[in-house]
Amino acid sequence: MHSELKTMLAEAKPFAPPDSKVVPLLREAEKSLPYPAHALPDTIRLAVESYQDYGQQPIEMVAMSALSMVSLACQGLANVARDRKLVGPLSLNMMVAADSGERKSSGDQTFSAAAHEWQKLKKEEMKDRIKLAESAVKTFEAQRSGLLAKITALTKRGHFSQVQDVKRQLEELELTEPTKPMQPALFYEDLTQEGLLDGLADEWPSAIIASNEG
Description:
Layout: H1 2-11, H2 42-55, H3 59-74, E1 79-81, E2 87-89, H4 104-125, H5 127-157, H6 160-174, E3 187-188, H7 193-202, E4 208-209
Parallel strand pairs: 3-4
Antiparallel strand pairs: 1-2
Helix pairs in contact: 2-3, 3-4, 5-6
């Protein structure tokens, strides 16, 4: 039996498909389809096509710069509902891989220019309100500290009836605590998750994290 098996193996020929055509295990990479610029709203599409014609960057890259600014402008105004339960912000995550010199930053700077200008004008417009608010906060904190110190002193002396009077004053004061107006801080580059959450809560409810480095 052993000798017969050796003979069969020696006479065996390599297997080949009937048509002798080798089928690759991996399929060839599919060619990417043209970017669907026609699907963009007309205002955005015209801006993208106009700048792409000027800057000659890939239209995908230009459209990404435009859509990122649209997301920044809208995300603080509404949410998107994928169904009745899956509701989230109008935010986008985008990444572009491009060689040096493909003018990736130029497109971002062009489409973000209006947002930078709005932020600058808004801060200038709010300058006096911010100063008044900061003054009101300092006054409030001084009044609160004074009342707390008074409560401590009266308690040490055993003047508990007077403590109750000062406590009521403190409670009334707490209801008038001033707050500083939110100032726009739209652009972040390098920060922690906690820093971003603090910024969205205390500064402005819409922001973008953008970096030119991988």
